[in-house]
Every structure is written in structure tokens, then in C-alpha cells.
Amino acid sequence: QVHLVESGGGLVQAGDSLRLSCAASGRTVRRFAMAWFRQAPGKEREFVAAISMGRSTYYADSVKGRFTISRDNTQNTIYLQMNSLNPEDTAVYFCAIRGVGWTPPTARAPDYDSWGQGTQVTVSS
Questions:
Q1: 110 by DSSP, 3-state: which?
Q2: What sign results for the dihedral spanned by CA atoms 72, 117, 82, 99?
Q3: pLDDT tens-digit readout, 54-109
Q4: Measured between alpha carbons, how far is 123 from 125 in angstroms, rounded to an integer?
Q5: Main-chain phi, psi angles of 84, to 5 degrees
Q6: What sign has the CA pseudo-torsion 15, 17, 22, 28?
Q7: Which H helix or E strand runs over 117?
Q8: What is the percent of the chain with per-residue pLDDT over 90, rounded to a whole number?
Q9: Which of 18, 1, 5, 11 is nearest to 77 (CA)?
Q10: How far apart are CA 67 and CA 121, in angstroms?
Q11: Do the Cβ atoms of 38 and 45 come closer than 8 Å?
């Protein structure tokens, strides 16, 4: 099981930017699709963005054009650059990795085998 450590969350104002990081250990992530999900209090965990082994990217409609997912295989880390944040983006953000290499990203949480602990993002108005 891969250990994922997230960082970069915090309290920002509407319109600000934030970059989240997720560092993996126990496995080289180069051949694995990874993703970001988020969960607000009282709501279901929802898909945010995903990135394939070949760096193809996928986004939820709610963040498209504002968020960018990327990966640095040398650092064994993925990132989520979040721009033009609004209060609706307030949530705990989780990173995840698929359990089988060479498989594509999906928007379904059960398809991911390991998860980070989550990092809180709060956007004030």
C-alpha cells in the first residue's frame, strides 16, 4: 500500500490561488494514474481532477479552467494548482492513486487503492 502525504492547504480569500502537493512513498508512481478528490462537510466525496501515466488530464466541470493537475515523477509527487478560488471550493482535498499500474484515471473513488490524509482548503469571501 502506497503512503501519500498531502500538503499546501490553508485559508485564502476568494480570487486567490493555492497549490497542493501529494508526495508518494513505497511505490514509484510513474506508471500509475492519480487523482484529486474533495469533500465538504455534509457532502459526498467528489472528483476534482485526474492525471494519467502519460500526463493526460481530466477535470470536473466545476473546476475546469481554474485548476491544473500535474505530476513530477522525479519527485514522485503530484500537484493541484488552484486559481480563482471561490467559497464553493472549501473542502478537504484528498489525493489518490490507482492500485494497478498502466490503468487509466477515472472519476470514481472506488477505483483508487490508496489515499492521502487530506488537506483543508478554506476560501473566505
A1: helix
A2: positive
A3: 999 999 999 999 999 999 999 999 999 999 999 999 999 999 999 999 999 999 99
A4: 7
A5: 50, 45
A6: positive
A7: none
A8: 98
A9: 5
A10: 14
A11: yes
Angle at 13 between CA 60 and CA 17, to 5 degrees: 50
CB atoms within 10 A of CB 112: 21
Q: Where are the beta strands (DSSP E) in the chain?
A: 3-7, 10-13, 18-25, 34-39, 46-51, 57-59, 67-72, 77-82, 91-98, 112-115, 119-124
pLDDT at 1: 76
The pLDDT of residue 41 is 92
What SS3 class is residue 102?
A: coil
